[in-house]
Amino acid sequence: MSKYNNTRLLQALKRQTIDVPPVWLMRQAGRYLPEYRALRTKAGDFMTLCQTPQLATEVTLQPLRRFDLDAAILFSDILTIPHAMGLGLSFTEGEGPQFAKRIETLRDVKALPTLEVEEDLSYVLEAVRMIQEELHGSVPLIGFAGSPWTVACYMIEGSGHKNFINARKMAYQAPEVLTALLEKLTIATTAYLKGQISAGVNVVMLFDTWGGLLTPAYYQSFSLATMQKIVANLKADPHTAHTPIILFSKGAAVNLEAMADSGADALGIDWTTDLSMARKRVGTKVCLQGNLDPALLFSTPEKIQAAVKTLLNEWGQHPGLIVNLGHGIEQHTPIENVQALIAAVHGASYSS
User: Fold this and answer.
1) Residues 172-217: tens digit of each pLDDT
2) How deeply is 158 buried, as exposed, middle or buried, from its count of CB atoms within 10 A (0-12, 13-18, 19+)?
3) Do 82 and 98 touch, CB atoms closer than 8 A?
4) Contacts of 175 (CB under 8 A, 6+ apart)
């Protein structure tokens, strides 16, 4: 008997034939849920939620109590690494992440301490262990980290931004500083994901949210190359070699073939890319995940059902599909529409 009652996600990642495709949703634990909003109010701030294993466990489990999802995803944040490196992360309602310090020079990069995952991010690892105890083998648990480029964007900018102009300027004006920062983050991210796997996650995902801001050439040198190193490091370690890896670069579909050669087991696709065309471009090298527009969930259950039917029809009988959104659930998404999406996927069949 399998260790997990629901193995759809793990089977899809191996590109095995299954009854219906698995579905999970980026940011499935988050602000659209009233129980999340209540817990965040009680906690006082976002960082307290992230850094308190009991609270992170509760948030992770909340959507699984409501919906028939095929995976849980660890509740945390992509900026835990720079926070652990002493940049002073905080979140202001309506303004997003803010750092007390930012990276501007090579001296700043050299001053960053080496990440000691078991000590500096022990609260994340403890949350993983607690979540797995609560899941009781019901569904796999996804761990994650931000890509080095995406995390570097915030560290250089000092906050969230629409186009991260300071990070992009650094690529041209001081590439040696950016390269040094990315090298340090690549080492730290590899160690962080190894720690999560050791603690119990079953799948890991690299969120490269801002890869699409780069030119195709710079994407490959500053973003994809770092993720390839992380994937290679995980695959080379016997303790992590068999853990599936999902790579998601938003807005970077022009690089799809190169992404498929990264060594990752699956690629996340955003809603600006046709999923069936993406499959034709990458063949059977990787599983594909996506790619419904999060705005679809503001329509009606009927339109959601039709969109899911179209997606599955265009995909056809091929194995290796994970249904997801092309990015995270938006804050005011109607809960009944999330339910409609999941029901539409699970009501489908590869044989119908």
Assistant:
1) 999 999 999 999 999 999 999 999 999 999 999 999 999 999 999 9
2) middle
3) no
4) none
Q: What is the helix (H) or strand (E) element at residue 321, kind and residue range?
A: strand 321-325
Burial 19-50 (b: 16+ CB within 10 A, else e): ebbbbbbbbbbbebbeebeeebeebeebbebb
Residue 144, strand partner residues: 205
What pLDDT is recorded for position 6? 87
Both tokens assigned to 345: 């996927």
Task: Give the Cα separation of 326 and 251 in Å (integer).
Answer: 10
Q: Give the CA diameter of the chain.
A: 60
Residues assigned a catalytic role: 27, 31, 40, 77, 154
> Helix 175-199 and helix 122-135: axis angle, to 10°?
40
Q: What is the pLDDT of residue 249?
A: 96
**What is the model's pLDDT at position 351?**
45
The low-confidence residues of the chain, meaning pLDDT below 50, are: 1-2, 351-352
224-269 confidence digits (pLDDT tens): 999 999 999 999 999 999 999 999 999 999 999 999 999 999 999 9
Q: Are 10 and 202 in contact (CB under 8 A)?
A: yes
Distance CA 321, CA 223 (A): 25
**Domains assigned to the chain:** 8-346 (3.20.20.210)
DSSP-assigned letters across all residues of 198-253: HHT-SEEEEEETTGGGS-HHHIIIIIIHHHHHHHHHHHHSTTTTTS-EEEEETT-G
Q: Do 35 and 43 touch, CB atoms closer than 8 A?
A: no
The pLDDT value recorded for residue 349 is: 61
Tokens of 315: 């995909």
Residue labelled with tokens 């339910």: 339
Ramachandran quadrant class, 203 (left: phi over 0; alpha: psi -120 to 50; beta: rest): beta
